[in-house]
Write a structure and sequence with these properties.
By secondary structure, the protein is an alpha/beta fold. The protein has three domains: 17-60, 434 Repressor (Amino-terminal Domain); 71-171 and 305-332, Response regulator (Rossmann fold); 173-303 and 335-374, Rossmann fold (3-Layer(aba) Sandwich). It has 13 helices and twelve strands. α5 (86-100) packs parallel to α12, α10 (234-245) crosses α11 (259-271) and α11 (259-271) packs antiparallel against α13. The N and C termini lie far apart (76 Å). The relative contact order is 0.11. Mean pLDDT is 86; it is low at 1-9.
Length: 376
């Protein structure tokens, strides 16, 4: 007669995790957490499971071990808007370094939506990502701590987080904006419109601060009506530019704070029949490959996007290697690239007298050509 002792596998069969759980007096899930070296298991339960494993001579499935190993070589990247061309080179920089060190990269798009960000954070936790690089929807994202609490390191990229213990890499947005707006002021412009992303995003707040600093350094007054905040996409730039061009005393220059908003502003300018830079100057943010091909070629603040991505990946790998090291906050420099879209303000310039019907038609045609080029 075949006999079986409690917690012992049947004759001729290898013990399973269920056998281990029964002998240790714990759940199968607890056994799994011990095997995965999770910190959420109590010392007493861990000791019982390890004793049961030894007593039963339990050998975890090689396939399961390989699956856990593969999961441990995956990095997560959650970006705020996959349509923003800024992220193209950023992602490439992250992926290149990850690949060099034997890691795969999983890309998620939060679409500037906090609920989608929460969903993808949970996916990273469930799949056991080794670490996560995050361009957060807001600086006080409540979901980051759920990763850190599970010992999944996080690096903030492009946008800072309030938690100073989280590693980060970004550019000096204040100085970048200050330099761009100062250049327009030096060209004689005083009514300079700012088209910015919301202040809830750290990049928007910093670029707004740099805009103001340029005026304050020269002891020039700033009108609130010159400042417009919109969504981070082309529609936001279009709407903001339209409001600025319809002021009783319209602006003579624009500073736009991301590439998609710049495209929207260009569209609105062309539809108004205005000529760049004869009627209005513009400096954008993010020097996309197509910027030099536009007519006129677009002046821009160039970010070291590939370096941003590679630095973020390096910080994450260093954190995985040394979890106890002090937090690192890397700030990279930008570069102002002046082309043909910004020029000195003509004497006696009055934007309200410019923009005939024929030039509006010409402007629309030019915009369509520019947009086609920008979107490949």
């Amino acid at each position: 007669m075949r006999r079986r002792r409690s917690g012992i596998a049947r004759d001729g069969m290898s013990p399973t995790s269920r056998d281990v759980a029964k002998r240790a007096g714990v759940s199968v899930a607890t056994v799994s957490r011990v095997l995965n070296e999770s910190s959420s298991v109590s010392p007493d339960s861990r000791r019982k499971v390890l004793q049961a494993i030894q007593a039963l001579d339990y050998q975890p499935s090689r396939a399961a071990q390989q699956l856990r190993a593969r999961r441990g070589r995956v990095l997560g990247l959650i970006i705020s808007d996959i349509q923003n061309p800024f992220f193209t080179s950023v992602v490439r920089g992250i992926e290149d370094l990850a690949h060099e060190h034997g890691y795969s990269l999983v890309l998620c798009n939060s679409d500037e939506n906090a609920e989608k960000e929460r969903l993808y954070v949970n996916v990273m936790r469930a799949e056991g990502a080794a670490g996560v690089i995050l361009a957060a929807v807001s600086e006080d994202s409540p979901y980051v701590h759920s990763l850190v609490g599970q010992r999944i390191p996080v690096v903030a990229i492009d946008r800072r987080l309030k938690d100073a213990s989280i590693d980060s890499v970004c550019v000096d947005n204040v100085e970048a904006a200050r330099e761009a707006v100062s250049t327009l002021i030096d060209m004689g412009h005083r009514r300079i419109g700012l088209i910015a992303v919301p202040l809830s995003i750290t990049t928007g707040r910093d670029r707004h601060a740099g805009y103001l600093r340029a005026f304050h350094e020269r002891r020039l007054k700033v009108s609130r009506e010159w400042i417009r905040f919109g969504d981070t996409r082309e529609t936001g730039g279009y709407a903001c530019a339209g409001e600025l061009l319809q002021l009783d005393s319209p602006v003579t220059a624009l500073f736009t704070t991301n590439s998609l908003m710049t495209l929207g502003a260009l569209r609105r300018i062309h539809e108004s029949g205005l000529q760049i830079p004869q009627d209005i100057s513009i400096i954008g943010f993010d020097d996309m490959p197509w910027a030099s091909l536009l007519r006129p070629a677009l002046s821009n603040v160039a970010q070291p996007t590939y370096e941003l991505g590679r630095t973020a990946a390096q910080l994450l790998l260093e954190r995985l290697e040394n979890p106890q090291r002090p937090p690192a906050h890397v700030v990279l420099k930008t570069r102002l690239v002046m082309r043909d879209s910004a020029a000195p303000l003509p004497a006696g310039s009055d934007i309200k007298t410019r923009g005939s019907d024929s030039r509006r038609e010409s402007g629309r045609a030019q915009w369509e050509r520019d947009r086609e080029m920008a979107h490949g």
